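Hi R.,

As promised on Friday, here is the backbone we talked about, encoded as structure tokens. Could you run it through your design pipeline when you get a chance and send me back a sequence?
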């Protein structure tokens, strides 16, 4: 039996892929464009789904008037960059129900829940892209023996890189970009 063939859309055109992913037919959900290459999502683990639900729910309770939390929406950062953070916070003024992506200039915070297949991207490449785009806050959520650990970063405008501002195990409590207090042990109840 011959191995299944790959669909045509996974082969880049001569000029390479561009951030306008909406015009590639039959693209799988949650496909990202990083450095001009398509990145396909692997099946999610329960930790990822549970943590994403917990943080999304708690952020929705915390965001001040005029901001919205969005899950798994891609962010256009440049012609060859359209990653899909697990969570973003954007001003309400830019929210459109027909949007398929948000502009990087509008993102206040991007958060990633690290999966085994995304470690390298979530720890290195994506934070670099988010910082270069000027996204002021980045959170990385890791699974350490079934317990969440959140690494919180803030953009240093002088270096245009992220500085680690805290590592949170049981409770994520920060005052920027606004007051946020999340009981991370709540993952046991999700």
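Update: got your reply. Pasting your designed sequence below so it's all in one thread:
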């Amino acid at each position: 039996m011959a191995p299944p063939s790959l669909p045509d859309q996974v082969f880049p055109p001569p000029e390479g892929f561009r951030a306008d992913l909406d015009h590639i037919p039959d693209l799988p959900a949650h496909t990202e464009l990083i450095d001009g290459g398509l990145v396909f999502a692997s099946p999610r683990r329960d930790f990822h789904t549970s943590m994403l639900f917990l943080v999304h729910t708690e952020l929705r309770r915390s965001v001040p008037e005029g901001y919205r939390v969005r899950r798994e929406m891609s962010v256009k950062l440049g012609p060859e960059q359209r990653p899909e953070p697990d969570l973003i916070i954007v001003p309400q003024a830019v929210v459109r129900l027909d949007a398929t992506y948000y502009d990087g200039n509008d993102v206040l915070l991007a958060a990633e829940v690290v999966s085994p297949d995304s470690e390298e991207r979530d720890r290195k490449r994506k934070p670099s892209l988010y910082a270069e785009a000027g996204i002021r806050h980045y959170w990385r959520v890791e699974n350490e023996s079934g317990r969440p650990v959140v690494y919180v970063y803030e953009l240093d405008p002088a270096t245009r890189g992220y500085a680690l501002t805290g590592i949170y195990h049981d409770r994520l409590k920060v005052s920027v970009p606004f007051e946020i207090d999340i009981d991370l042990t709540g993952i046991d109840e999700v």
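One thing I noticed while checking it: The CA atoms of residues 111 and 139 lie 5 Å apart.

Thanks again,
M.
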